[in-house]
Amino acid sequence: MIAITPITAFNDNYHWLIHNDSSAIVIDPGDPHVVDHYLLENSLQLVAILITHHHWDHIDGVEQLKTKYSAKVFGPDTHKIANIDVTCIEAQKIYIEQLELTFQVLSVPGHTLDHIAYFAPSTSAHFNLLFCGDTLFSGGCGRLFEGTPEQMWHSIQKLMALPESTQVYPAHEYTLDNLKFAQSVDPNNQELKNYTKQVQSLRKQGQPSLPTSIGVEKQVNPFMRVLEPSIIKFAQQQGNRLHLSQNDVFAAIRHSKDKF
Predict the structure, then answer these.
(1) Collapsing DSSP states into helix, strand and coil, what is residue 117?
(2) Measured at the alpha carbon of residue 48, what is the angle toward residues 46 and 51, in degrees to the nearest 5?
(3) CA–CA gap between residue 148 and residue 153 (Å, rounded)
(4) Which of 14, 46, 148, 215 has an alpha carbon 20 to 30 Å from 70's alpha carbon atom?
(5) 48/101 Cα distance (integer angstroms)
(6) Are residues 32 and 2 in contact, defined by beta-carbon separation less than 8 angstroms?
(7) Is the pTM of this model over 0.85?
(8) Which residues does 260 contact at the CB level (< 8 Å), separation at least 6?
């Protein structure tokens, strides 16, 4: 069996550690010190590092951890990240022998053009797992630093097509802020209200709001609800336009979130 542990870093980052009793994988280690501390305290050997995109808070710990543990580094096809051993592209499969864990690579541009995600189909040892970096958050999605709304909407749709039971592990604790915006877009959504209460309770106890699931996000996340009449109406009001494509609706919501 594997365990998945959130290692907190900076203000709101999670460096997700996937491990058994002896070996570990880390996702997007921006801070090598907090990861190294956990590994040492728990007598774990780091065998692999998975990178979703090139932002500093996701990669600044890679070189130090790779050097110390001789871990294999997987990441997107970009010149902006050093120390990658295996360049990952859409539909590629990655097998980590020490944890008997297979990932499928998903290309999900939008937040950055090089962004990828890692999906592990369910086995007897774990549920469906998705490590999505800054593409999808609970109640939200990543800011568009490099990509277009059309690219991001396509990426979100790709994630929506995964099984609803998929456990989603974003890289940041943004949930409460995202849900405040979601309620401004979709104020009559009872599932959203219920979920907000659950998240508030977790955060008051000092617990992470994550993981979420694809099924939950389809009910509460406005960026996954682009086809819902309430979301379309909100987008129409933003631009005083009646006839909007799916891309237009997504772009209107993302623009509103940027100003929120």
Answers:
(1) strand
(2) 125
(3) 9
(4) 14
(5) 11
(6) no
(7) yes
(8) 180, 181, 184
> How many CA atoms lie less than 13 Å away from 102 in the CB half-sphere?
8
Q: Is the torsion defined by CA of 61, 48, 12, 3 positive or negative? A: negative
Separation of alpha carbons 205 and 188, rounded Å: 27
To the question of domain 3-259 being in CATH 3.60.15.10, the answer is: yes
Integer CA distances (angstroms), 164 to 129, 161, 168, 172, 213, in order: 11, 8, 10, 21, 7
What is the torsion angle, in degrees rounded to the nearest 10, for the CA atoms of residue 173, residue 177, residue 181 and residue 183? 90
Question: Measured between alpha carbons, how far is 196 from 177 in angstroms, rounded to an integer?
Answer: 10
* Res 139 pLDDT > 80: yes
The model's pLDDT over 4-50, given as tens digits with 9 standing for 90+, comes to 999 999 999 999 999 999 999 999 999 999 999 999 999 999 999 99
Q: Are 220 and 179 in contact (CB under 8 A)?
A: yes
